[in-house]
Amino acid sequence: MQSGALTGERDVREAYAAHSGELYGFAMRSLGDSGLAEEAVQETFLRAWRAGDRFDPQIGSLRTWLFAILRNVVIDLGRARAARPRVAEGGIEPSVEPLEEALLAWQVEEAMRRIGEDHRRVLVETHYRGRPYAEVAEELGVPEGTVKSRVYYGLRALRVVLEEMGYED
Amino acid sequence: MKTEHCRNRRESLGAYALGHLSAEERAGLEAHLEGCPGCRAEVDSLAGVALLLAHGNPANFGPAPKPSPELGKRIEATIGAERRSNRRRVRRRRFALALSGATAVAAVVLTVVVLSGDGEGVPQQRVEFAALPAGVDMAATLEPHAYGTEIHMYVSGMRSGTLCRVFLRGANGATVPAGTFRYRWGDDSRAVLSSALDLSRTEAIGVRAGGRTFFAPVDRGAAATDNRTEEDPT
User: Fold this and answer.
1) CB neighbourhood size of A87 (10 A)
2) Contact at CB, A158 and B15, closer than 8 angstroms
3) Residue B217 · residue B204 · CB < 8 Å
4) ipTM
5) Which among A47, A127, B38, B183 is least buried, having the fewest CB atoms inside 10 angstroms?
């Protein structure tokens, strides 16, 4: 049994502490139902534990491996759900986009959550809402040049966070 | 002078990569990029991220939803239960038991062979454990001594490395340990053990191995023939 294998109950506990939040976030985003999302996370760790000795940290990170398993679990759950439609709770719309797109979207959203509030704010206002820099600058009470530089540093921060999450150009 | 100029330009690169600049600003910046490899490389490194932004939905930038606090415990419990049931299954498979535990004990067949003494002029007796898992053989020879009983265990067919714990059960139901040994595959081992319980008071020999206990009754009459001096506790 190689080191790093996810075979002991303690390994599972550590992996859960490190990655369950992200896994749940993605499951929630693609399934749109907290009960189903928890089911997906539980099934993911169960499958990971069953196949624990096949996990090789030399090949990829634990996080990537868990996401790959979750991806399959979500597909399975999605199929099961197609047979018995359920109502989404908490006002979150079930996602209808293909899984790869959902994973990409979730990664961008998670990266956005991880960068600083100042950076996120200017990116949302200027890019997503398409507002003029001068208007955003006035609202924030900072010079326009500051908004511009925050957009620049925000984009850089986003890049660093996405790279940490495994994104490659 | 040039670096100062560059830094001012550089802070526009984000807006440029996102396509936020006016045509005029863009033309000015592109003129700079033409002669500045550093800024060009920086634009390239932001281009991919700038494209990715379109995949995110700002409605989802808020705090991430969290699973219920019990989820972790639930997962641990599920894995624990599966692990335990796996262990039981492995054990069952390993021994390929044909009979349930209760039947196994009830079905023990006793073979008593009174052997000639080994020089001390005392009878030995050989007992065999029947109703063993398929492929497993287990027998014992018991020999009375002043200190108690000497036991020769013969075992074959178990999983190599199986720990066997041997004990004698007295007529009064109390058990007295006789020691442990580990069965090694290919060894078809005989282990020599001893117990403080006198053979004339021994009702059965038990072997605990692989989570199961196997018994073979002992014929006290056979052992007691030469031990008449010992007071029968019954």
Assistant:
1) 7
2) no
3) yes
4) 0.74
5) B38
Q: Per-residue pLDDT for chain A (169 aa), expressed as one digit of tens each?
A: 444 567 777 888 888 998 999 899 999 888 888 999 999 999 999 999 888 877 777 777 888 889 889 988 988 887 766 665 555 444 444 445 567 788 888 889 999 999 999 999 999 999 999 999 999 999 999 999 999 999 999 999 999 999 988 777 6
Scanning A62-91 for CB atoms below 8 A from B yields: none
Cα→Cα distances B40→A98, A163, B43, B44, B91, Å: 35, 20, 5, 6, 66
The interaxial angle of helices B37-52 and B2-10, nearest 10 deg, is: 10
Measured between CB atoms, does A108 come within 8 Å of chain B?
A: yes
Is A114 in CB contact (< 8 Å) with chain B?
A: no
* Cβ contact B61–A169 (<8 Å): no
The 10 Å Cβ neighbour count of residue A113 is 15
A165 — contact with chain B (CB < 8 Å)? Answer: no
Question: Chain B, 108-137: which have a CB under 8 Å from a chain A CB?
Answer: none
pTM attached to this predicted model:
0.55
In this structure, the strands spanning B148-156 and B163-170 are unpaired
Phi, psi dihedrals of residue B64, rounded to the nearest 5°: -70, 140
Largest Cα–Cα separation, chain A:
61
Query: Would you state the pLDDT for residue B224?
Result: 47
Whether A138 and A62 have beta carbons less than 8 Å apart is answered as no
Residues forming beta bridges with residue B113, ordered by sequence position: B126
* Rounded-to-integer distance, Cα B158 and Cα B208, Å: 12
Q: Dihedrals φ, ψ of A16, to 5°?
A: -65, -45
Q: What is the DSSP string of chain A?
A: --TT-S-SHHHHHHHHHHHHHHHHHHHHHHH--HHHHHHHHHHHHHHHHHTGGG--TTTS-HHHHHHHHHHHHHHHHHHHHHHS----STTPPPP-S-HHHHHHHHHHHHHHHHS-HHHHHHHIIIIIS---HHHHHHHHTS-HHHHHHHHHHHHHHHHHHHHHTT---
The type of residue at A82 is A
DSSP reduced 3-state for B10: helix
